[in-house]
Amino acid sequence: MPADDLYVLSSPLAWVLWFIALAVAMYFARSPAQRAILSLARALHYALRLAARSLLLAEERLRARNREVLMAAGREAKERIIEREFERIDAAVRRDLGECPTLQRRIAEQATRLEEDHEQSREVPPAPTSWVQAVKAVAEIQVPQHDPMVGKILEAVHASMLKAQDQARVDFRAATRTRHEHLKRMMPSWRRALQLLGQVEGKVTRLIERTQIVDRHIADYEEILQKTDRAERMLTSSSFVQFFVALLVLCIAVGGAVINFHLIARPMAEMVGGNNFIGAWRVADIAALVIILVEISMGLFLMESLRITRLFPVIGALPDKWRVIMIWITLGLLTSLATVEAGLAYMREILLQDELATSALLRGERGLPFDNQFVWITTAAQMGMGFILPFALTFVAIPLESFVHALRTVVGAALAGALRGLAAALRFAGSGCRYLGRFLIDLYDVVIFLPLWVEQQLKARAAAPGPLPDARKVPPRIKESLS
């Protein structure tokens, strides 16, 4: 194309002409174009709202499924707790209330002893003696006055009476002292009886507390069976707490496994060769990792055999005889692997000493750069860690079980929230498409504003009323008809 033609096409006047032509074309295509824009916006709006509705239905089904799984898991966990509480109550009843006959016999013995001491400590009034009657009889005898024999007799009676009175006082004091001694002997019996009653009260109180705990668990279990909202909230919050706590403990266990890996990786390189690779991994690292994983597996099997965890129902369903055999086998294998790790930790220290000695000889030094008398401390520490860490990793099965059971609830809740959020986003996008269609129609009219303005002016002129006729030019016949 010649340069002049290109200049003409790219000139401002050409752009204006093209714009006018495009505006006129868009003006004539205004109705079908707007209908197309409205149809497209409406189709996108309904499609997005339909997708949002589908996601909400999927979220409702997922929530219902999560609720069923959560209630089933909560019911199973609560059944285990209630079963364990009943076992504890049974053990408490056998241990505490089984001693009730003995306590009853001891309390009966103490009560009998107290009753005997109380009978012996009662104050019995002394019986009147026979000489009182004799004195009374002498006093009633009629004797002549001024008889010296009567005076002597009365004096003798008076002396005898004083002597008998003193003897009665001594006897009464001795009897009182005996009663006080009986009362004094009653105090240890009272204390012993109070102690026995306190023991009975303590045993009954502990049993009542156990029954109250069981009552609370039974109430929660009934709510779970009824599938109430409170039970769902309680189980959901419990699952989230178990998830994060188990995740924290698993992270700590991973740290212990990493330390264990570094303890045995170096000596394993000397055993299997440090220059052998499987892909991008050294054979020594893979061997050390396999040993740690086997230890964790043995720990899982040991916990399953002890029925502490229930990750593998097949192991829990084994007969007691085979389960005990499996316990001893897994414990023996775990002890053997721990012993192997302790030996590898000792070998690691020996290799370190050899490297330090070699470096010292190459530098021309004599002896090691540190005192050899403290080497046994690090050696013993490494061997102890190598032996203890496998047994510590055994308990990873407990947080792992909690993590696995809580993961289903957490993932289900997260997916339900994600579906609800995505549905809200689709509804918002559908509404946006609807308003976007209106915006595009308005923008279309802005582009063709000049033809629309001309059309509006023509319509306004056509709708305007015409001028009134001059009265001087009206024919006479019309005037007569009007008049």
The class by helix and strand makeup works out as mainly alpha
Strand ordering within the main sheet: 1-2
Mean pLDDT: 76
Helix proportion: over 70%
Number of strands: 2
Which stretches are low in confidence, meaning pLDDT under 50 for 5 or more residues running?
A: 3-9
Radius of gyration: 54 Å
* C-alpha termini separation: 78 Å
Write down the overall geometry. elongated
Number of helices: 14
Along the chain, the helix and strand elements come as HHHHHHHEEHHHHHHH
> What is the makeup of the main sheet?
2 strands, antiparallel
**Fraction in beta strands:** under 5%
Q: How would you characterize this protein structure?
A:
Among the domains are: 83-226; 229-395, no CATH class. 85% of the residues lie in helices and 1% in strands. The protein has helices spanning 3-10, 12-28, 30-96, 100-120, 130-139, 148-226, 229-272, 283-305, 313-316, 320-362, 375-394, 397-447, 449-463, 476-482, and strands at 277-278, 281-282. It has a two-stranded antiparallel sheet with strand order 1-2. Strand 1 (277-278) and strand 2 (281-282) form a beta hairpin. The longest helix is centred in the middle third of the chain and has 79 residues, at 148-226. It is elongated, with a radius of gyration of 54 Å. Residues 3-9 have low confidence and may be disordered.
